[in-house]
Every structure is written in C-alpha cells, then in structure tokens.
C-alpha cells in the first residue's frame, strides 16, 4: 500500500465532494424522496458512510463499535448478506436521524478511517484495506451521480421549478438555443471482426467488466454524435408517440399506461407554445442542439426504428470507443465536469463525439454476465451479479458522472423504462 497520507487525501477528496453536492440544498430538500427508485440525499450521505463502517471498520478496526446500532438496518441498501434492510420506498419517511446527525456520522467514520490508514497493519491487511477503500470510493462516486439525478427528479415535482444551482455558479450549461439545429451527424464505418471487450490492464474496474474476452462483431456504422433535442422533437411532431408499429410491445404498453407524449423533463409553454426543459438550473428554453436526455430504452428504440436505424450493441460501442480514444483521448476522461448539463456536439467533423461526459447511451444488449464471470464471495458479491436480469446496458458516462469515473469498459445498467438518469441515444446501422 502506498503512503497513508496519499490514501487519506484521496479518501477525503471523494468524501468532501459528496458534502459539496449537498451544500446547495435545504435540510428539507435532503430528506425528501420523489419516487421509489430515487433516494433522499440524506440517505445517500448515510449509506456511503455505512459502506465504509460495515465493510471496512467492522472487519478491521480494533474494538469496533457502531456509531449507531440501528444504522446497520436503516442504511443497508440491498445486501442480504448483511441482514435486514429498511424498505427502499420508505426512505423518505426517515425524518430521524436528522441531517446534522448524518453529518456527524460521516465525520465519525472519517476520523476512524484516518486512524485505520495511519495504524500498523501487516502487508495482507494493507492490501485488503486498499482494495476495500478503492471499492468504497468508487461506490461513493456512483452515489454522487445518483444524488444529482435524484435531486433533479425531486425538484422537478415542485411547481416553483427551483434551481439546484445557478448556471453561472456551476461554470457551464448550454444557452437557450431554441430554433437552432445541429449539423447532420456523420456515419462512421467500423470493420468489426473478432474483438476483445471488457476491462484489461491496470486500474480499478467493477466485477461486471470482467473477464476480458473475445467477441465477434459484424461490420457496422455509428453516428458521430448523440441524437439532439431538435431531432427528437421531429419524432414527436411526426406522431412517434402515437405509432405503435415503432415500439416494442412492452414499450407501447408502457407509453399507453402512462399517457406519455414527450421526454421526462420537457414542458410545453401553454401561453407561447415554446418547448422548455427542466434542468438542474431550473426551467429553461429547450436547447435544440443539445443531446436528448432522460429517455428510456423504449423511447430510444422507437426513435431508432423511426430513423431506419437501431441501437448499438455494447460490444460495438466499446470497440468504437477504444478506437476513437486513440484520436480523441477520451478513453479515460479525468477532468471534473461542472456543467450539470450535456453539451452540444461540434458543428461538423467526421469523428466520434460525445462518447463520455454528456449522457449515458443505451445499447441493445441485455445486462448479463460475461463468459467466465465469477461472483465475489460474501456480501460484496451482491454488488452487481444479482442484478443481471431484466436490465439493459448503457455505456459512456454523463454530465454528472464524477471526473475520472468513466472508462470504455464501464457497464451501467437500468430497466428498460428508467429515464430519470441522464440517458440518451447514439444510433447504429447495418
């Protein structure tokens, strides 16, 4: 293990960012839950702390005592190997502990982790600590993204259309862009063949990215950029939500049951007829050049059919991303994004654009284990493997993904009807 000071600094950097993400919010904001799939910010702050206390301190701390015995159940997410869990749909009912006590919980665990880093451990113990801390920090970064997507969904339910953060303070965000349209995308051809996908080499990866293996990919083409709001609006105006032939059977039932006619955060100004979109900056004019986001797999697939195209497989996406990285340097984006909104593509250029840092991109691949996949022993083996059913793979990363948390082999996954995440469309054909 490297110098303890290095690990303490790395640990503190990630932990402090979670608190910074909560800083613009009121205590009421942090405790509310807008739907069962989302969690209160207060719960995210506690659960990520629970992870370090449960999987590291409980195993390695001398004379371990929990900060609060009840937290073991309250902030367990889905680890059956740990024990009982508080029901997910009821997380918003936890008015106690108060936000201040959750912050005290974080401070307590952080101080104990610092003592553990600085303590005397033998080589196997330090190796185990390094592995568990790395996983815990990656886990917390996943929850940092969830904090922002869950907060966006929460604030969108408020008739006041409140801002999470001002665009000027965030240092980014698109301009209105209403009435404009992006240049047509280029179609980039790939020869395919017998390729390798999955994580390889040094650096962290989640278990679902392993093992690296060979896969045959037929020749294919990908659009150089993501589908824009303006293009998706054309789909709507052409009757896309009223044409069952474009939709998967389950998707059409889903549309009809919910009476859907537009993406999750789009609004139509009744007075002026202008299209708007709720963002983390509040309600804004719809940016016609910006990537269409918060779309379900059903919507993405219907749009692709309408265009005479399809969604890429995850193998195609990763193969193209790795080739594109040679020219664009986007394979391991490390810059910490502060835009909180996907950015427009370049106006022209026959190159892969918007692969990372804008929105997660649906693939047609079911989320399943790679050949030779092995579940880790113990409760940590529940992290990914048990979710490999009835979900689809998304690739890339979004505008709220923490910097350095993206890579070509990363496999995100959600059910086909999920759309509160920053999810968008890259088209494929052949």
Structure notes:
It is built from eleven helices and twelve strands. With 430 residues, it is of the alpha+beta class. The protein folds into two domains: 153 residues; 263 residues, paralog of FGE (formylglycine-generating enzyme) (Alpha-Beta Complex), CATH 3.90.1580.10. The protein has a four-stranded mixed sheet with strand order 10-9-8-11. Strands 1-4-12 form a three-stranded antiparallel sheet, covered by helices on one side. β5 and β6 form a beta hairpin. The protein starts with a helix and ends with a strand.
List keywords for this structure.
430 residues, alpha+beta, paralog of FGE (formylglycine-generating enzyme), 2 domains, 4-stranded mixed beta sheet, 3-stranded antiparallel beta sheet, 11 helices, 35% helix, 11% strand
Task: Summarize the entry for a quick read.
The chain is of the alpha+beta class and 430 residues long. 35% of the residues lie in helices and 11% in strands. The chain has 2 domains: 4-156; 167-429, paralog of FGE (formylglycine-generating enzyme), CATH 3.90.1580.10.
What characteristic shape results from the CA principal axes?
A: globular
Specify the number of helices: 11
Task: Give the end-to-end Cα distance, rounded to a whole number of Å.
Answer: 48 Å
The total tally of domains equals 2
CATH-level-2 architecture of the largest domain? Alpha-Beta Complex
Lateral strand order in the biggest sheet? 10-9-8-11
What is the CATH first-level class name of the largest domain?
Alpha Beta
Q: What is the ordering of alpha helices and beta strands?
A: HHHHHHHEEEEHHEEEHHEEEEE
Q: How much strand?
A: 5-15%
CATH superfamily of the largest domain: paralog of FGE (formylglycine-generating enzyme)
Number of strands: 12
SS-based class: alpha+beta
Low-confidence stretches: 172-179, 326-338
């Amino acid at each position: 293990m490297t110098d303890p000071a290095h690990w303490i600094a790395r640990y503190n950097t990630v932990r402090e960012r979670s608190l910074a993400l909560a800083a613009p919010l009121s205590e009421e904001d942090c405790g509310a839950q807008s739907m069962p799939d989302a969690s209160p910010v207060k719960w995210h702050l506690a659960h990520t702390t629970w992870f370090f206390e449960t999987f590291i301190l409980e195993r390695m701390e001398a004379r371990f005592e929990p900060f609060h015995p009840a937290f073991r159940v309250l902030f367990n997410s889905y680890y059956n190997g740990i024990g009982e869990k508080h029901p997910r749909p009821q997380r918003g009912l936890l008015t106690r502990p108060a936000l201040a006590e959750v912050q005290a919980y974080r401070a307590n665990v952080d101080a104990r982790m610092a003592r553990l880093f600085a303590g005397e451990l033998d080589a196997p113990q330090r190796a185990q600590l390094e592995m568990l801390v790395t996983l815990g920090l990656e886990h917390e970064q996943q929850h940092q993204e969830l904090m922002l997507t869950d907060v966006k969904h929460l604030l969108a339910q408020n008739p006041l259309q409140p801002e999470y953060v001002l665009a000027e303070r965030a240092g980014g965000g698109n301009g209105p862009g209403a009435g404009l349209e992006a240049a047509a995308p280029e179609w980039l051809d790939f020869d395919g063949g017998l390729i390798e996908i999955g994580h390889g080499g040094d650096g962290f990866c989640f278990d679902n990215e392993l093992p690296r293996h060979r896969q045959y990919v037929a020749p294919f083409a990908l659009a150089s950029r993501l589908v824009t709001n303006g293009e998706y609006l054309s789909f709507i105006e052409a009757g896309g939500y009223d044409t069952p032939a474009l939709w998967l059977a389950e998707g059409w039932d889903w549309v009809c049951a919910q009476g859907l006619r537009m993406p999750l955060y789009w609004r139509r100004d009744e007075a002026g007829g202008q299209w708007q979109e709720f963002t983390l900056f509040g309600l804004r004019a719809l940016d016609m050049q910006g990537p269409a986001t918060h779309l379900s797999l059903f919507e993405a697939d219907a749009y692709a059919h309408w265009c005479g195209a399809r969604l890429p497989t995850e193998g195609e996406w990763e193969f193209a991303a790795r080739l594109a990285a040679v020219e664009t340097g986007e394979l391991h984006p490390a810059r910490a994004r502060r835009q909180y909104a996907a950015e427009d593509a370049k106006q022209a250029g026959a190159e892969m654009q918007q692969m990372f840092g804008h929105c997660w991109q649906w693939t047609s691949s079911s989320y399943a284990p790679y050949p030779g996949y092995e579940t880790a022993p113990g409760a940590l083996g529940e992290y990914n493997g048990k979710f490999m059913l009835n979900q689809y793979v998304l690739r890339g990363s979004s505008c709220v993904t923490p910097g350095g948390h993206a890579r070509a082999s990363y496999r995100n996954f959600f059910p086909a009807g999920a759309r509160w995440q920053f999810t968008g469309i890259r088209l494929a054909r052949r």
